[in-house]
Design goal:
single chain, 67 residues, 42% helix
Amino acid sequence: MIIIANKLIITSKHLKGEDGYRVFSIRVKENIIGKIDVMASDTGRSRNEIISMLLEYALDNCEIKLK
């Protein structure tokens, strides 16, 4: 995973990483799943890997404004 000019660049898969994950379920719109599936297919990564990268990027680059 590479971040350039606020863009998350997802590279093709090289090696399997270590574990230490937890499983949970979420509801996602079908059009979002379609986009994730295209990204997974294009990079050779799993849907899970793509979602994890996107979540990590979003958490590292979001700002919370309290009222």
